[in-house]
Design a protein that fits this description.
single chain; Growth Hormone, Chain: A; 0% strand; globular
């Protein structure tokens, strides 16, 4: 394997280790043992849920190809998954708010396990059902668990046997977010990729074995949710139909500029991110060169870990607001995805020479690692902003509303993936990220104005109270 890959991987391991070891008191928040138990339980469950997702990723396309399906057939299967997430996402989100986030987490486990089981069949219709179930599961994964965590973090009750006396400090929420992303979207992704490769390749158990391992992990997570989580709701009123919930969520988004901006930012960034998932392979091997896909995937996931480690530091600094530094993150991510265009424009060689990695490949790998660092910062940061701006009553419904344009965009990209050059697709993604940076700037300005009004109102109220006190003394 090309030594350049090993060097990039090793440097990132060193950077992550330095960041984690060098954390001082100013980078740490002192918490309680009750919170630590609650946080560790959630992170364990979250990691199992993400492992169930990551284990499947490297072998989905290969499995369909192994069954003899064409590229067009496989593309339609992927479109079915994203389309399912778009169509059913708002429904399952509303059901989670109405009937409970714990039940939604259980539903995620069951539907994804069933989706894994369908991979044992080579019949197209069965696999199509599996993709639809997978789309529903994805919507639940990226809404129900976060909604449960936020509600449970602030809930005051003593009826939970495992984590009594809740109502934790607001700033502690960022610790759970950053650690969950660091482990679940970083370390677990790397381990899952290596495990899937070992099961299917080294041990020769076949391309279905990673899906069986995913089902096993999801089953363990299902048991933990059933016996250690309490239930919480958004709006459990019996007389509120799903249509009424949709209208209420749409009204909230339309009435609050901050929520609308946040939804647009999320859709733009995640749309670019999922486009990148499909494009990094042809970008690094434009002439169908042999590249170590698994090792590159692990390298990119390590960059994401580095980003989440940086995010944990950024979010513990009381003087630095999420709305401020995310403007820089979006701008850097836009520049990083411009590199394929710049490489072509400058005429940097894309041909392998003597079995070594091409010059363009070296540049692009570094730029893609930078983009993954931005992704690692994005996830806990967007979670933090959602916890601040999205109302509790309709949290899951609103979060899945944001995923509608995202999934629609990804479906269009998949449908027309052969119609445009790779560089054009990267350029479009870069434009979207630049738009996200502009909208993030607007969100920062709006939130600053509201904060200023709040402070001025509080000062005015205190002055009036002092004046009334003086009059009473007289």
């Amino acid at each position: 394997m090309e030594s350049y890959y090993v060097v990039v991987f090793g440097l990132q391991v060193l950077a992550v280790a330095i960041l984690e070891v060098s954390k001082g008191n100013k980078d740490r928040i002192h918490t309680t043992s009750a919170f630590n138990a609650f946080k560790n339980n959630y992170i364990l469950v979250y990691c199992l849920m993400m492992a169930g997702d990551w284990l499947q990723g490297p072998y989905v396309y290969f499995l369909y190809s192994h069954y003899g399906f064409s590229k067009g057939d496989i593309g339609r299967l992927f479109i079915a998954g994203f389309g399912s997430s778009m169509v059913f996402g708002t429904i399952v989100g509303s059901l989670a708010d109405k009937y409970g986030r714990k039940r939604a987490g259980i539903t995620y486990c069951v539907t994804y396990i069933l989706s894994c089981f369908t991979k044992h069949s080579s019949q197209y219709r069965v696999l199509l059902v599996g993709r639809i179930l997978g789309g529903i599961s994805t919507s639940l994964l990226f809404s129900a668990f976060e909604s449960w965590l936020v509600a449970e973090h602030f809930k005051m009750h003593t009826d939970c046997l495992h984590f009594p006396q809740r109502g934790f400090e607001p700033q502690w929420l960022s610790l759970t977010f950053s650690k969950a992303i660091f482990l679940g979207n970083g370390l677990i992704a790397i381990i899952s990729g290596l495990l899937a490769n070992t099961l299917a390749g080294t041990l020769g158990l076949g391309p279905v074995s990673p899906f069986d391992a995913a089902a096993f992990g999801l089953t363990i997570g299902l048991v933990l949710i059933c016996f250690t989580w309490s239930e919480n709701y958004g709006d459990p009123s019996e007389d509120k139909t799903l249509i009424a919930q949709f209208k209420a969520a749409a009204t909230i988004i339309a009435a609050d500029e901050k929520i609308a901006l946040l939804g647009a930012i999320q859709s733009l960034f995640e749309g670019s991110m999922y486009t990148f998932v499909f494009l990094w392979t042809p970008a690094l091997s434009p002439n169908d060169q042999e590249i170590p896909h698994g090792f590159i995937f692990a390298t990119l996931m390590l960059a994401s870990m580095l980003g989440s480690s940086l995010a944990s530091r950024l979010m513990t600094r009381m003087t630095l607001r999420v709305e401020t530094y995310m403007q820089v993150v979006f701008f850097v991510s836009a520049v990083s995805l411009l590199m394929p265009i710049l490489v072509n424009f400058m005429g940097i060689s894309s041909d392998d020479q003597g079995g070594t990695m091409s010059a363009s490949g070296r540049v692009l790998l570094l730029s893609f690692c930078v983009f993954e660092v931005c992704i690692g910062i994005f996830w806990p940061s967007i979670m933090k902003m959602r916890s601040q701006y999205i109302p509790e009553d309709s949290r899951s419904t609103i979060m899945n509303f944001f995923r509608i344009p995202l999934n629609l965009f990804v479906c269009l990209v998949l449908y027309k993936v052969d119609a445009f050059p790779v560089s054009v697709m990267f350029g479009m993604s870069s434009i979207f990220l630049m738009m996200a940076a502009i909208l993030q700037r607007r969100l920062s300005v709006v939130s600053d104005k509201l904060k200023t009004r709040f402070v001025e109102g509080r000062v005015s109220a205190e002055k009036e109270h002092d004046s009334e006190t003086e009059l009473l003394k007289i």
